[in-house]
Amino acid sequence: MRHIALAIAVAALAGCGKERPAAPAASPAWRLEPVMTLAGPPDTGWTRLKDVVADAAGNVYVLDEGAAQIRVFDSAGAPLRIIGRKGAGPGEFGEAYGMGIGWLGDTLAVLDPANARLGRLTPEGTWIGSWPVKRITGSAVRLHQATISAVYAPDWRPLGDKAQSLLVRYAAAGPGDTLVLPERLPDPPGAIVCPSPGGAIRFFAVPFAPGIVSEPAPGGELATARTDGYRVAFVSPRGDTIRTVGRSVEPVSVSDSEWTAGVREYEEFRSKNPGANCDPSSPPRVRVKPIIRALFFDDAGRLWVERRSAGGDLLDVFDPAGKLLGTMPAPAHDEDIPLYVRGNRLYAVQVDAETGAQGIRVYRVIRPAV
Fold first, then answer.
1. Which residues, 6 or more positions from 268, have their beta carbon under 8 angstroms from its beta carbon?
2. Is residue 63, in this structure, part of any structural domain at all?
3. CB count, 10 Å around CB of 359?
């Protein structure tokens, strides 16, 4: 069971309940063909990978957050250069959780919350300048790529006695529109809060609890969905639902063994701290797994939906008009690091089950001939 790394209070999501859209026609079967694997430096390995992107030529940019540097490889996997180092000067990055990389056209954008800035560099690593951002850190914090020429960085503003979470759009001209992130679901609870003597607070995630996933869309809207259904709403900055995309799919049950393993850390904590005043006192039993795992967009503006199925995780691909283009098995990947697609290649950060070492697997997306 994971501790919640970052708690965010945000505005309510409307109209994305458990309704099931009508099933579209069967989707064409796409597939992934492995191309190469990028390992870490031979002396140290990767310290803590956070992001991977590619440029138009297929060169790969790997952000090692722990080392505060970006390692660049060519399209065949040969090392090209290293960008950045720890520090606060031009071309340097702070050591903190919450970094991210993306593109502003041909300019590399680097989210650097430890230095409270969004840095801009050439692909060769030359420092161009920066814009200020808030010092928001945590494993859930990252940079969102909306189109190949715009990214969104996390922000917040006061809302009564709470903090409203936002995403601020950055393009070549600087910061622009703001999107409001929807509030996490109040029921069933997705977390258990356990105050301890001395003022410390422990957070435990409820395994398989439904939630909300959101991603800025190419048109300036927010694509957002409850994970316990398959209905993605495109919401304008004013909060209006512009259109929806969905499918009818079968949920996957949570077995007793999976549930027991998921709550083991919490149960061990309670056995050692019987007087802890946890809220709720025990996690509500979740019967089915969330359907949607993640949303993201590729450089052509297509929506990719990562979802669960009884046979394993799948990726559904929709065109900008919402037409289902294809479905393929999803590759295993670090769940804290989103998949990335540019051109006909998909990039996934994977974790070795035995050693815990991270690596980058590159795939070619194979579509059926029309």
1. none
2. yes
3. 18
pLDDT given for residue 7 in this prediction: 33
User: What is the spatial distance between Cα 302 and Cα 283, in angstroms, rounded to a whole number?
Assistant: 37
CA distances from 99 to 5, 70, 289 (A): 14, 11, 29
Question: For residue 124, what is the DSSP state?
Answer: T
Query: pLDDT, tens digit, for every residue of 178-199?
Result: 999 998 776 667 889 998 766 7
Return the closest-CA partner of residue 304 out of 248, 359, 245: 245
Residues 360, 49: Cα–Cα separation, whole Å? 9
**What is residue 17's predicted lDDT score, i.e. its pLDDT?**
42
Residue 205 in any domain: the answer is yes
Per-residue confidence (pLDDT) for residue 25, from 0 to 100: 54
CATH of the domain at 246: 2.120.10.30
The region of weakest confidence among 145-154, 157-166, 169-178, 250-259 is 157-166
| pLDDT per residue as tens digits for the range 96-120 | 889 999 999 999 999 999 999 999 9
Contact by Cβ (8 Å): 1, 194: no
Instruction: Give the pLDDT confidence score for residue 198 in this predicted structure.
Output: 67
CB atoms within 10 A of CB 131: 14
- Number of folded domains that form the chain: 1
The pTM (predicted TM-score) of the whole model is 0.90
CA–CA gap between residue 102 and residue 299 (Å, rounded): 11
Please state, in angstroms and rounded to a whole number, the distance separating the CA atoms of residues 339 and 142: 13
Q: How far apart are CA 257 and CA 263, in angstroms?
A: 10
Confidence of residue 34 (pLDDT cuts 50, 70, 90): very high
Q: Is residue 8 part of a domain?
A: no
Which structural domain range is residue 131 located in?
Answer: 31-366
**Tokens describing residue 292:** 């949607």
Q: Which of 293, 258, 273, 288 is nearest to 192 (CA)?
A: 273
Per this entry, what is the length of the chain?
A: 370
Do the beta carbons of residue 218 and residue 147 sit within 8 Å?
yes
CA angle in degrees (0–180, nearest 5) for 315-17-5: 65
Helix, strand, coil abundance in the chain, percent, nearest 5: 5, 45, 50
pLDDT for residue 197? 66
Q: Is residue 221 part of a domain?
A: yes
